[in-house]
Specification:
Strand content: 15-25%
Distance between the termini: 15 Å
CATH class: Alpha Beta
Number of helices: 6
CATH superfamily: P-loop containing nucleotide triphosphate hydrolases
CATH architecture: 3-Layer(aba) Sandwich
Structural class: alpha/beta
Number of domains: 1
Radius of gyration: 17 Å
Amino acid sequence: MIQEDAERVCDLISSRGQVGGRTIVAIAGPPASGKSTLAEAVVHALNAQQDTSVPHAALFPMDGYHLDNRVLEERGLLSRKGAPETFDAHGFCSAVKTIQTAEYETFHPVFDRNQDLAIANAIPIHPNTPVVVAEGNYLLMEQDPWTSLADVFSATVFVCPTLEELKIRLRNRWLQHGFDPKTALERASRNDLPNAELVLRSSRKADLTLSQNDSNTGAHQPV
């Protein structure tokens, strides 16, 4: 399924590519929708099509703009990590706009799930890389500052499994972290599912919508 969807996204990018400029693509969706896995597959597919030392595509994940746990704890937001207010949204949006026109190499943070923190300057984007694939929960949200990116994205993709599918995936995430089934469901229901519902309710229509539903939810979990 991922390979087929990645091909559809690549076709969309090809049809929306900016001549003489950089093409910024948004892949959005709720947590555990599969957007990150899809974005990685798209970047891999685009880079496999070229044989130069400069990557044809770069991945730019929103998760690198998580606020640090110490900041979240001071603000009483640690239990809400992943909600819109727990990101440096303005910083991310400014970075996307910079990437669109930058004629120099730029460096951006990446989120390390094992350490549960963002690592600065871990993602280099070459000035001659023509396609940048941004991915994250809130890229298509009809709220400031996310709406300021509407004219920046050349193509938009929204990944939206059913809520029931998301509930299973989110519960399984916490199971994989060692929690018992009851606690895993409570954690998913308390924060992850409200965030997922917000994304589904408040995101604008994308150029391409993908379901990414998968009954094999006991296997590798999409992100």
